[in-house]
Design brief:
There is one protein chain. Among the domains are: about 80 residues; about 70 residues, no CATH class. A hairpin with a 2-residue loop joins strand 10 and strand 11. About 15% of the residues are buried. The chain contains one helix and 19 strands. The chain is about 5% helix and about 55% strand. By secondary structure, it is mainly beta. The N and C termini lie close together (about 10 Å). Strands 1, 4, 5, 6, 16, 17, 18 and 19 form an eight-stranded antiparallel β-sheet that branches. It has a four-stranded antiparallel β-sheet with strand order 8-14-10-11, with no helix packed on it. It has a three-stranded antiparallel β-sheet with strand order 9-13-12, with no helix packed on it.
Length: about 260
């Protein structure tokens, strides 16, 4: 029946922990069969049952060639799925990281009293957080000494931080400052230098139509163990996509079984 079906689109892909694998999830491990990731409606995908040629030769030369289907090559293209999987493979993803310290910079113009408002509260712990302020004039940046400026904060709520120039200045002079400040990011991924592969069980659901009578079916494909490879490319200033780096899935045969295919 499979040969008379037209595959329309992959509706869902479920990647689960296979038998014998150890996959960490914080302080606890994933249980066997527990989903690692559920991918709904991936944008593009290509599923191939790949055969490896085996030659039969004798002393006089070539006698024949056979093909052994020994793996499934499955490629998924989906930017949001890619980043989630890539973050999972390479490190830990924290969706509630709290406050995180980052480094920022900005150009400031001082008023007639030598004050300029900062966009964020600077972290200025001695020996840890260093602040660098440059005076910008004629395309030249001159680093200021620590005793030539000070930080001030308003008494009204919300508190506003200022830099006060103590050296000679003129109203409208431009300064460039770099400093650390705290933000509350939506998520933080800690990337580690490890191999970019993971083993999982895979279940694929594909929407299909019978060409003979237009009946709708679901093609279900199950692999006991697959290996997933992926790299990540971030497309900058591209309105058409978030990413187009493929996730490549290769099946690992279990007792000579590459995959199980059902028409539902």
């Amino acid at each position: 029946m499979l040969e008379q079906l037209r595959m329309q689109e992959v509706s869902q892909i479920i990647l689960s922990k296979p038998k014998g694998a150890v996959i960490k999830r914080g302080e606890k491990d994933f249980l066997t069969g527990e989903p690692i990731m559920i991918i709904n409606n991936p944008a593009l995908s290509n599923l191939s049952f790949v055969s490896s040629p085996v030659n039969v030769d004798d002393a006089q030369g070539h006698l024949g060639m056979a093909g052994i289907t020994n793996k499934i090559d499955f490629v998924i293209n989906e930017g949001s799925v890619l980043y989630a999987l890539w973050s999972y493979i390479y490190g830990l993803s924290n969706e509630e990281p709290g406050q995180v310290k980052i480094k920022g910079n900005e150009h400031l113009r001082v008023d007639k009293d030598g004050y300029a408002q900062l966009s964020a509260k600077p972290e200025v712990e001695p020996g840890i957080d260093k602040v660098y302020i440059y005076k910008v004039e004629d395309n030249k940046n001159t680093l200021l000494d620590n005793d030539s400026y000070e930080f001030c904060v308003s008494s009204d709520e919300p508190r506003v931080w200022y830099i006060h120039i103590l050296d000679e200045f003129e109203e409208g002079d431009t300064y460039f400052i770099t400093y650390n400040y705290l933000v509350e990011p939506l998520s933080v991924s800690t990337i580690h230098q490890i191999h970019n592969n993971i083993f999982a069980a895979m279940d694929i659901y594909i929407d299909a139509v019978d060409l003979k009578n237009d009946d709708k079916h679901t093609v279900y494909i199950h692999c006991d163990k697959v290996q997933i490879h992926t790299d990540m490319a971030l497309s900058v200033n591209d309105s058409s996509k978030a990413s187009f780096t493929p996730i490549r899935v290769l099946s690992v045969p279990e007792e000579d079984i590459v995959a199980t295919v059902m028409v539902i």
